[in-house]
Amino acid sequence: MARSYAKSLDQTLVPLGFKRSGDDWVRVRGDMWECVNRQSSQRGGVTVNLFIKDLETEKLFLAIFGSEGAVIMPPITTRIGELMGGRDRWWNSSQADGPDEMIKLLLQYGLPWFDEARTLEVQAENWYARKTALSSRGYHGLSLVGLALTLYRMGEIEEACEVLRKPVPRTAIKVNVAWVAKTRAWLGCDPAT
Question: Which of 43, 57, 92, 141 could potentially form a cystine with 179 if both were Cys, beta carbons 3.0 to 4.6 Å apart?
């Protein structure tokens, strides 16, 4: 089972500039790191996960948090089933056409997903919910930091500082509060009020 799916992914992705490392096929286009991951399960079969991150924003995470920044800044993720309307999609070894169907859906839904957030403006909205970050979203430190650094890269310094001044609820996780405070200090924002 795994070889036929892996071979199909190899045959499709390597000519498109991806390099394989285990169950991951990775390429870098411009500032974007893109990864197609084959996930296998004895019960479920095989599915495809997709990961993307902006390497220039990651450099800022590294500048602020040191080597820990690479871990703190998780890639944006999705699964092929989510892109097809939200229903999880797995293929198993009994499906003779499984590898072909998986590749067809990867080409139709998966690879185009990598092109949806090429600009900082779209990243701010799609990845970090720019329009609702201050109003309705909870206090998730990594999202707040990611949005603030994306806004910083866009030249929107005051908005970036405003995001990092979001009131801290009493239930906030301490490490989230610390990440936000460290980023606020690095950007030179006034302390939270």
Answer: 141
DSSP helix/strand/coil, 75: coil
* Alpha-carbon gap, residue 155 to 183, rounded angstroms: 16
Say how many CA atoms lie within 13 Å of 11 toward its Cβ.
11
- 157-175 pLDDT, tens digit each: 999 999 999 988 888 899 9
For residues 23, 56, 74 and 113, what is the CA-based torsion angle, rounded to 10 degrees?
Answer: -60
Q: How many other C-beta atoms can be found within 10 angstroms of the C-beta atom of residue 38?
A: 19
CA distance 189 to 193: 11
pTM: 0.88
DSSP 50: E
Q: Which residue carries 């030249």 as its tokens?
A: 155
- Give the angle subtended at the CA of 50 by the CAs of 45 and 51, to the nearest 5°: 135
